[in-house]
Predict the structure.
Amino acid sequence: MKAAYENDNIFAKILRGDIPCHKVYEDDDAIAFMDVMPQSEGHVLVVPKAASRNLLDADPGILATIAPLLQKLAIAAKSAFGADGISLMQFNEGAGGQTVFHLHFHIIPRYDGVPLQAHGRGMEDPDVLSANAEKLRAALAA
Ligand code: AMP
């Protein structure tokens, strides 16, 4: 049976404003905020506002809206953190590595010779997340 979207996932709570995040960007369709357990310096998440579990049940129109935003944030993140490259990641269902069941995309700055840290390895210092969100907002505005 196809899994259903559940309204109590942590990103739905962030979208409702029930819990805080280190916000980088928001428009009518999406929000972007820092990942609290970054796999590399500057790891940011892009979350469409429309409810879907992941790529498999998403409205294709939403995907079309999100793609330009992914590019914009990837360019800003590369510049903000002096990265050498960007990994764009997206996981679907538990078997695919997904842990939060509201569609989201990972934009992960990459640095030559630096391996990715483990997924969900531990919480980053909130001051670091806050400073990185500010750097990204500045790069977006530049
Ligand atoms: P995944 O569902 O595996 O694609 O990844 C979910 C991501 O959400 C992980 O990288 C977590 O570190 C991140 N995460 C979980 N809770 C929060 C939160 N409250 N704020 C920001 N990021 C979160």
Observations:
- The helical segments are 10-16, 60-80, 126-141.
- The first strand starts at residue 23 and ends at 26.
